[in-house]
Write a structure and sequence with these properties.
Elements: E1 12-21, E2 28-38, E3 43-47, H1 54-61, E4 69-74, E5 77-78, H2 84-94, E6 95-99, H3 110-120, H4 125-138, H5 154-166, E7 172-176, H6 184-199, E8 203-208, H7 211-214, E9 219-224, E10 227-228
Parallel strand pairs: 3-8, 3-9, 6-7, 7-8
Antiparallel strand pairs: 1-2, 1-4, 4-5, 9-10
Domain ABC transporter: 12-229
Protein name: Phosphonate-transporting ATPase
GO molecular function, one term: transmembrane transporter activity
Length: 230
């Protein structure tokens, strides 16, 4: 009888990741020897000053960029060497993105903006509408589904962006300075939504330079000069 217990794989495993821009005298090590594990269901913040490597890190975690060297295992699969098409597929199905600027299409309603990612996933229109409505209800915007972005406050627009990010039930929600354009009261509302989503077991990784925002998460990863320092 085999008594060995297999330990589950972390959701994210970065193995000696480097990202180098340029070459020769103008070579810049944006990331150096990054080793990191993030388990499924974690709620983390990545902090660091401008130029510390946190945005490069976010691009690699989000499969928007490839490392120069090293391996990136996402849900057990090494995504460092995948083709652009395969990476696009992973981004659409497994990763939700929330940015500082909301990136909503001004001519579309909140509902239509949230339906967009599902078009690429080949989901029928009736199902898209149903799932988009559910996502907007989850972020407290059921009364605003037919409003266009210019009829919504900054906080409401960010809620639409969060609904769009979660509509395909991603494994990971990546948020890059999600409260950077919001006032303190609206920041609290948005952070409350992230907390609620994390309680529903969505893994959330948040890049921020705001200490109070980072302290809302359960784990803070500090970057400096392209390295993890704590």
């Amino acid at each position: 009888m085999n008594s060995s217990i297999s330990t589950p794989q972390p959701l994210i495993k970065l193995d000696n990741i480097y990202k180098i821009y340029g070459s020769g005298d103008i070579q810049v090590n944006a990331l150096s020897a990054i080793n990191l594990k993030i388990e499924s269901g974690e709620y983390c913040a990545i902090m660091g000053s401008s130029g510390s490597g946190k945005s490069t890190m976010m691009n690699i975690l989000g499969c928007l960029d490839r490392p120069t060297a090293g391996n990136y295992y996402l849900n057990g699969k090494n995504v460092a060497d995948l083709s652009r098409k395969e990476l696009a597929h992973i981004r659409n199905e497994q990763i939700g993105f929330v940015f500082q600027q909301f990136h909503l299409l001004p001519q579309l309603s909140a509902l239509e903006n949230v339906m967009l990612p599902m078009i690429y996933a080949g989901i029928s229109e009736s199902e898209r509408k149903k799932k988009a409505t559910e996502a907007l209800i989850k972020v407290g915007l059921e009364a605003r589904i037919n409003n266009k972005p210019n009829q919504l406050s900054g906080g409401q627009q960010q809620r639409v962006a969060i609904a769009r990010a979660i509509v395909n039930n991603p494994l990971i929600l990546l948020a890059d300075e999600p409260t950077g354009a919001l006032d303190s009261e609206t920041t609290k509302e948005v952070m409350s939504i992230f907390r609620q989503l994390n309680e529903e077991k969505i893994t959330i990784i948040l890049v921020t330079h705001e200490k109070d925002v980072a302290e809302e998460t359960k784990r803070i990863i500090h970057f400096a000069d392209g390295k993890i320092i704590s």
